[in-house]
Amino acid sequence: xxxxxxxxxxxxxxxxxxxxxxxxxxxxxxxxxxxxxxxxxxxxxxxxxxxxxxxxxxxxxxxxxxxxxxxxxxxxxxxxxxxxxxxxxxxxxxxxxxxxxxxxxxxxxxxxxxxxxxxxxxxxxxxxxxxxxxxxxxxxxxxxxxxxxxxxxxxxxxxxxxxxxxxxxxxxxxxxxxxxxxxxxxxxxxxxxxxxxxxxxxxxxxxxxxxxxxxxxxxxxxxxxxxxxxxxxxxxxxxxxxxxxxxxxxxx
Length: 252
What we know:
252 residues, alpha/beta, Arc Repressor Mutant, subunit A, Rossmann fold, 2 domains, 17 strands
């Protein structure tokens, strides 16, 4: 009995295969999907028009890494991929124990994480204004870093913040990020924010990068740390090369 795969499912499998392997020929995909060459070519053309892959003669390749040189404000970031971020945030919050001394980085997914944190005796240090307010509402003990305020992300950054952060030793740190690739590692757009993130990772027993799927394959101006430095908590990661470099927890 021949099973006919729906268009949406077929195109999802195409993207997963190319994401994992870097490229695929039409012949390979026809065998993988049990579809005709004309169907596969139409799928590749449609996905290329949506900017999902690079269509080439005889097949397709993964898109080159996208370079990010600017950052949305915190309110806009929270709304992007909201459901996926909420799933990641809920899982991350479940990792906190009463005896933890926790760093929570400024960022949209880390902010959603604070909403999922139940009553706890853990102590929190953060450079996020909204994060501190949310934790304080729950009766948590919160220490907020001093320093310069970045208006777009509402993050405390700068030399004063970095100096304050170096006084602490964290059991766990939860870090927001802009881009993740094998070669460039974890990247962000701002030098000052990168410094804060890097120090937090260095001074933590274990650190978690909270990342929705849009961050994979993206590169920003400043590398925070190599992939080996932190675990990744994400919705879904189809890049096996990343999984070979670090621990990846997929919550979907």
